[in-house]
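Hi Q.,

Before the meeting this afternoon, I wanted you to have the alpha-D-galactopyranose prediction in hand. No need to reply - just skim if you have a minute. The sequence and ligand are here:
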Amino acid sequence: MLNEKDYDYKVSAAGRVNLIGEHVDYCGGKVLPAALTLKNTVYVRANGTDKINLSWTDLPDKVTLEIGKLDSYRDLKYAKYQAGSAYFWQKAGHEIIGCDMVQDCTVPFGSGLSSSAAIEVSTIAALATVAGEEFDPVEVALLSQKAEREYTGVNCGIMDQYISACGKAGCAVLLDCKTLAREYVPVELGDCVLVITGSNKPHNLVESKYNERREETEQALAALKTKAEISCLADLSPAGFEKICGVLGGKVLDRARHVVEECERVRLATAAMRAGDTVSLGALLNASHASLRDLYEVTGKELDALAAAAQSHPACLGSRMTGAGFGGCTVSLVKKDGLKDFEAHVAKEYERATGYPASFYDATLGDGIIAEKIKK
Ligand code: GLA
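Predicted structure with the ligand bound:
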């Protein structure tokens, strides 16, 4: 049993839901994620050694990392996220001191709600805090992304780590992934709420398929650059894209069209949210899911069944997969007064279609990093 008072600091970082802007962060697009109250919390205390001792509240494992050898833990199952983050923090010139860390994660693993980003970001923030260093959350996010890419092998964009570090309660962040400029957008949905539903389909092939999609978008960009002065796919408007997309063919054309149109949907969805127009917002969520299913091909049977079950209920204004895809969660915009009936309907229809139960996560929009000294 964890006794908080045995530790000096409690440092957490958030899981996330992406409202819209899927598979566009690594193409220089804008995204609209929000941090969740589901998070990874690190309890930490200095131990006067040259080692980081790791344990978990919900795993029996105990792992010791030597501070001088942080590059050598890439094969560890769970601790590679902590080791990778610590390694890149150290490589960027920050001091790491010996410490004991207990990790407590309420973001369900493999749920597509970014447990890995929450773990990476909170680990770096905890290492900085216990060493008495003030940290810049954006630097923490960038080094966490580096860890995910170069240590664990997923060539991810910046969205997850950024929102995990910089999220703000009650808000989504409109993040420009090309410049890292951000705007906080209050999520005020009138008579509606966001519902996050898990497919309970374990993430499968995410790494290889994710990296494959990235390569396809890079191929598209190289071909389109012969026709237009662009630095990323997000530089093209849908109309500009249609004029020059003849240089693309097959799947690469579909992938690029998804990216360009999804960027436009982010713009429209942000405007709809600011105007309190939940009907338009819902329609954009549905269109995003259809594009991820038909053009980007990252949904799969279970996420399609889950989104379809949600979309078929009268209280639902829109529903889409969120995150990388290939399993994971959907996010739905649902009228409060029909919420109970909506959940019963989705649970029944989804299980009938796939054999998996649906999970409804009890989460609201929370803060990014929270670092606190534990009172004794
Ligand atoms: C994963 C990645 C993100 C982003 C999403 C898809 O969550 O970590 O960078 O690309 O997939 O939008």
